[in-house]
Sequence to fold (1032 residues):
Amino acid sequence: MSPRRVRAESDAVGRQDRPLRITVDGEPVDGVEGQTLAGVLLAADRLAWRRGRSGAPRGVFCGIGVCFDCLVTVGEDRDVRACRRRARDGDEVTTQSRAPGGLVDRNEPTPPPTEK
Amino acid sequence: MTHRDIVVVGAGPAGLAAAEGALAAGARVTLIDSADQPGGQYHRMLPEAYEATRPEALQHGWTAFQRRLRRVRGHPDCAWWSESSVWALERPDPAPDRDSDLDRDPDRDSDPDRDREQPRPPRVHVLRGPADGSGRRRTTLEPDALVLAVGAHDRVLPFPGWELPGVFTAGAAQALAKGERVVVGDRAVIAGTGPFLLPVAASLLEAGAQVLEVLEANTPRTVARGWSQRPWQLAAQAGKSGELAEYTALLLRHRVPYRTGRTVVEARGDGRVEEVVTARLRPDWSVVPGSERTLAVDAVCVTHGFSPQLELPVAAGCALRGTLGGEFVAVDDDQATSRPGVYAAGEITGVAGAPAARAEGALAGWRAAGGDPDTAAVRRLRRSRDQGRAFAERLARAHPIGAAWPGWLRPETVVCRCEEADYASLCRAAADPAGSAARVAKLATRAGLGPCQARVCGPTVAELNARLSGAPADREAEGLPVPAPHRRPLAQPIRLGELAAAPQPPHQP
Amino acid sequence: MYGTRVVVLGAGIVGSACARELALAGLDVTVVDRGAPASATTAHGEGNVLVSDKGPGPELELARISRELWPEVLAATAERSAHAARAVEWDPKGGIVVATTEAGAKGLADFAAAQRTAGVRAEVLDAGELAKAEPYVTRDHTAALHYPEDAQVQPAGAAAALLGDALAAGARLRTGCEVLGAATRGGRITGVRTTTGLIEADLFVNAAGPWAGELSARLDAPVDVRPRRGDVLVTTPLPPTVFHKVYDADYVGAVGSSAEDLQTSAVVESTHGGSVLIGSSRRRVGFDDRLRPEVLSAVAAKALRLFPSLAGVPVMRAYGGFRPYVPDHLPVIGADPRLDGLWHAGGHEGAGIGLSVGTARLLRNLVLGEEPVMDASPFRVDRPAVLGPNSPENTGSSHRTESEETA
Fold:
């Protein structure tokens, strides 16, 4: 089994779930409003989403913005700590990799247009 | 009524109390936190969007916290800056030059009165906007006094496999369960040292996970000896003890074994944690051979104590003090640091729990705002703070990090998670007399050079390098500070475009 | 000279390079540092091995000699230790200088023409070639030149490699040892008094970087070497984005300038770790190590003019170092005419990493009386910029005594 969200019906805090949807590398992932991106990913059974220098998988470690393991790109912004950023409906998340070659980081800066 | 401008950084128990104390003394307060809600880690709140009807179900002291929050946020002289990161502190006065250094009063650093003759605290550089966003608003504040209450995070020692997904800090498990109702796994082991193991276990149990074991690395003898010194001091922390007793009862109810003198020495799995190896430890945390056991898990939560977040105090120039539990900000009887106009409260001055943090915060805020130093209330706060300090010392004695922990490491064990620098590379650097200096070894191994900027591995790498090379710490050269693991002049990342933009006036909407 | 005892004062890259040359020549070398090796100026630079930023003259000549020596030196290091050689991160990536104004383009063209007469390779890049070489650089430029000889090292690793070579050749290292003064006899320095006792030797080399001025004053032979602060920004690791050392044409002017005010120019390059290093600023603020956000801001703004697409990239660290400079912006390499047995090797400002090996070779030539690799007279100690402001009437802080002066 895996990380998951406590079911709203049985949650002692008596909460409401308002669904939202983000995309991760183009794939839709469902979460609820108020969750961090890390929370959305974990609860959607994604334990890891970044790759380190060796290509090893990484996800959440510290959960409070200290370790920078959970970095993702949100829209145009690279290196966003997923554990600190609240998810918004429609967020386009792209995963990152520091592995050279092979595992491509899709977040290279956009080159300027070729014409002056 | 003083009408001083006070900036409080951090809105956890200490920062909120500081804001309240400063407002009570008649100051105008700007309360800054990087999160979108106050409370810090201790009172980590559920997202507003959850519309929770019973948020108190997960909180200790919820009513008092809510009352304080209303008093602070509702106060006309309080500006609450959420989602605001302090990325730099700019000291107004030059560093003492070497000539004056040579003949200076050796007591100067410990004599805050002398330093207080100098007028201004540092200028506070803030970025306002969503966490790690772009185009956040850059602004600066020039307070009459600054209260730093930025808290601490888990210290986790490296062990083989600790970089696998599914290995979390205890704080992560707690934050996810308490802050957004996400439970990190179904079969969890909680390991490390300190009373924090218990609330984390409680959070996971409450959220429906199975906690297989709670492992306290220190032996019963170490724990008992640490706690039993000066037992009369414990009475003052009755609130804290009661909280711990509740957790213990919860573990019993769920039949969760709490084992001492045992820890997780390895995590294994293919792309995620699948099992852990636990082992019995001697008092110095060396592994008892043959005591290893494997256990199938899907989550491991680890904490070996707390690392205070010292980048802002260090940037402000505050003197630190070494303790059994590591370095903390040195403060005087009024929570004043060695720098003029800079106060510190909460876990950056010592890990003593929320009640002590509140007392420190209230005292720091009151005194920063120029409140009367000698009222009955202030004397009470000082007493409470002193009890908290005694508690912190006992905590550190009962739950030390055993000196033999590097015995867990293998040559290929990752020590710096960001750069994946392994133990072998640190050993190699330390063995080279030409390259063993901390700064040189750091550049050679890259340990501590990655995105977390040594927040996680810094103290560990400093300790390993000192042990392996046998070298004393680098000496200070004028102008160049010693390579302290907490030195991060950029306290938070800032995007180039944000840095290039000119600061905007602080109180513009 | 074999067996002559030499004490090198300072275990930064210049001291390490000097120790290496002298130890390999068979001298009995001790390296002394009040801190730890390579931890001060050396560890706070960018690791420039450049010919592109220097106009014709003695410094360029020393740079070209150094550039030739580096591969040779590193090949020898690799024989001793593959790890040590790898840690140098030698990268002959080449430099690209970009002008963004018409005046800048004209200045750059003239500068390059003069450099070519001195043997520097400076190749004009048209817009297409520049875009191919640096896809992310601004298209809004007026001229670009490629300098294939420019290289980069990881400076602390380079210093450790040189010092390691020296130690392997028999040199000794004493750290945590601060020089307090000189022991002299008959106008000759015979020893240095230190915090850990007297160290006697036949020759002493002042390689104390930005502290060379203060050290030489303690030895009663002051040279005017001053600190100049430079700040560098480090981004989070990126996919490959910057492929050469890329800088704007303003940098050339800033290197030779004496203005006290803040000067900034964009110098942008990647490191092996994937971070982009962004410089540079030059400020004369003594040894003031305080962070100045407005300086970092100015550096960032200049860099974005060159690489607009880096605007969203986070800066995770900033560091500053103190570069040693002489008011006439030339290094000081040679014997001190006032005190026999004292030599100086320093004052390289921001170029000390690259120039270290050439400086060391030249110093060895002079010490051993060999045919020098170049005319060393422009770097001589006995020149007004080095001794001028420190003539006896101007040295309020000098501890010089009557007997020592006449001795």
The radius of gyration of chain A is 16 Å. Residues 53 and 99 of chain A are 4 Å apart (CA to CA). Chain A touches chain B through 52 residues (CB under 8 Å).
